[in-house]
Amino acid sequence: MKTTDTIAAQATPTGRGGVGIIRVSGPLTAQISRKILDKTIDVRSANFCNFFSKDKKIIDQGLAIYFSAPQSFTGEDVLELHGHGGQVIMDLLLRRVLELGARLANPGEFTERAFLNHKLDLIQTEAIADLINAATEKAAQNAMRSLQGEFSKQVNKLASLLIELRAQIEATIDFVEEAEIKKGTNQNFINNINNILLQIKQLKNTAKRGVILRDGVTIVITGSPNTGKSSLFNCLSGQDAAIVTDIPGTTRDVLRSWIQIDGLPAHVLDTAGLHDQPDLIEEEGIRRAWEEIKKADHVLLVVDSSINEESDPNKLTGDFLKELSPHSSLTVLYNKIDLTGEATKLIKANNVDCIYLSTKTGTGLDLLMQHLKSKAGFQATEEGFSARRRHLDALERAENYLQNIQNNLLDSNKVELIAEELKHAQQALGEITGEVLVDDILNKIFSEFCVGK
Questions:
Q1: Which is it for strands 7-10 and 103-104: parallel, antiparallel or unpaired?
Q2: 225 and 370 within one domain
Q3: What CATH number should be reported for the domain holding residue 245?
Q4: Which domain range does residue 141 map to?
Q5: Are the C-beta atoms of residues 27 and 4 closer than 8 Å to each other?
């Protein structure tokens, strides 16, 4: 790709700071550098310079670094001006650069040029945004592994295997006497399909964990009034975020908190108590509660274990499960075991996990934390990479194409159809790295970046 325009933006956050950076990229960069610095500087070196206005007054002084194409982040000529971080200074420098022929960059446009100039693939460009937005140390580590190419390497390996199989199949199409794929005549081909399917499934499982670490899990706390929902919310969030009283219906709206569970990011929501005779305000709170319950990754149904009619887990979950979204999982929490004298434990009833605990004493909270990590498929010690839901979608499509070959086409001798399914599987993988370009995906990815990156 060769661009005809030059872009510029402030690469550091707006506001005041010790250092601020203006970044420039494109064909006019060398010309802009000479005019604003009033000299030619060494390439790939930190040069202490004055930054000049149009009338040769000094706007600021600091470091100027020049990267010549293609040895730069964008693959183009790039200039960075590191000045004092006051916003007035940054605005003056940026205005001067724009006067010299640059235009203001769009969100993510520097990274987009790096992608279009083959400096990064699409996974790596997304990893930059994930690294910037990482909410946990583990998420940052995963994003860095994706940026270094760990995820891309595995996708490209699978794509290469598919290319080899396509070459084998398409070569037979021109030779009628060889255009058959039978279990008895080409076991090697079948083994290769099975092997690629296995690798895709393994990669998909790792990507799922990467998505969870990037996006977090949404955990909704619900149940009848006065069961201890708000107490649990406060225990999980580590602060008195929710008002706790003996008066039923204290929580009317949805309360939210962002927490970490041994490195697992989680959005925890406390909701209004569910009951049959709400007043007008409670009715709206209950409606909002059900909205969140149906969107949740995991629902914690809190029960007062000291009330006899609610103490039998086999009678409790049936009706509630019917209302849950198919992608949601449920755990019933039997709270207030400090009143019943029961031990903390994890059991199954109606195929639903049930945990006995006390939010008052903290007994059983460790068991709950481990349970939530297990349900999310999260292991703090496991190395992975950052991934997104679009990656999972592409991997699932590739898996489905290969399963179609495995289940429906191997015995049919329809070589052309097998070749077509292999082609679609390869294209699905290509969407992940950007080998196959989809404009809607590109627009969505780069619109999420800040200006200057």
A1: parallel
A2: yes
A3: 3.40.50.300
A4: 130-212+388-434
A5: yes
